[in-house]
Write a structure and sequence with these properties.
PLC-like_Pdiesterase_TIM-brl; alpha/beta; Glycerophosphoryl diester phosphodiesterase; 19% strand; two-stranded antiparallel ribbon; 11 strands
Length: 294
């Protein structure tokens, strides 16, 4: 009936006038959309972004320039003056410690399968592989021993341990290797893990070394973090709020932030820095340092 159409028109008009139909909230643009130059300019224009004591941690080395977890990636990170180089550990079948993040060799190397099923000699038959621009780069999977031999006491090693077949198998050989190379000192090494059991084992061997308890995305629990026997709490950026940072700081714990979405990482770095976090696992050392105005 005509009166119904008139009434509906009037109702819609009232809603529009009253602001009922609001524009959708802006979606956070990713770093690729912004572009590096825009982000750098934005960072330089915010004096409150100066946090000179924030620790810049080279995530898997300078992995935006070269294959992650390789001697070359670590060398680039070292030349960029990162405060720490991050090393994820895996253990081979013959109990050697290698730098590798994933549970398998498939994504980052020419091999395939679980590293724990290969000896070190077999692992050395594979190369890490990655494409930058139009060129493919290859380099062997390094052992932890090769890394510390290359950099000695010139770097700070931020080492991540994990359980092997559900057991604490890599902690003792790690401690022994660091001792043999005169690196078991807070000046040269920090430990991190998603496993409380692994951290506990490391603390038994070397209680003086800083330890970081990591929480997976959306798995962070503030009460658990406050009670954890760890110096640092490592949190994925999407779970970081100013309240979380302030509360952990009040308990005397540092907060280090990692990122799992490369599209928004650079924007997220700027956000969490404003909350006063203590460390950033960065995939772009130059950008992070630009934000810090170093």
């Amino acid at each position: 009936m005509p009166w119904r159409s008139i009434l509906l028109t009037l109702v819609i008009a009232v809603f529009i006038i009253s602001g009922f139909f609001e524009a959708k909230p802006q979606v956070l643009k990713d770093s690729e959309t912004y572009g590096a130059e825009t982000l750098y300019a934005s960072a330089a224009g915010r004096p409150e972004a100066v946090l000179t004591d924030l620790e810049v941690i080279a995530h898997r080395g300078a992995n935006n320039f070269f294959n992650e977890h390789t001697l070359t990636a670590y060398e680039i990170a070292s030349e960029a003056d990162a405060d720490s180089i991050e090393i994820d550990l895996r253990m081979t079948k013959d109990h050697e410690l290698i730098a590798l993040h994933d549970t398998t060799l498939d994504r980052t190397t020419t091999g395939a399968g679980v590293p724990e099923e290969f000896t070190l000699n077999e692992i050395k038959q594979f190369d890490t592989v990655a494409v930058f621009g139009q060129k493919t780069y290859k380099e062997p999977v390094p052992t932890l021993e090769e890394i510390v031999t290359a950099f000695k006491q010139e770097e700070h090693y931020y080492i991540e341990t994990r359980l092997v077949d559900g057991e604490t198998k890599m902690e003792e050989p790690l401690i022994n290797l660091l001792q043999e190379n005169d690196l078991l000192d807070p000046k040269y090494v920090s430990f991190q893990s998603f496993s409380k059991e692994s951290l506990k084992k490391l603390q038994e061997f070397a209680p003086e070394i800083r330890s970081t308890l990591l929480y997976g995305t959306d798995k962070f629990d503030l009460e658990d973090g406050l009670e954890a026997d760890a110096d640092v709490i490592g949190i994925e950026s999407r779970n970081v709020t100013k309240c979380v940072v302030d509360t952990l700081h009040q308990q005397g714990k540092e907060v280090h932030v990692f990122f799992t979405d490369e599209r928004t990482q650079l924007v997220e770095q700027q956000r969490v820095m404003m909350y006063g976090v203590d460390g950033i696992f960065t995939d772009d050392i130059d950008f992070t340092k630009q934000v810090l105005k170093e």
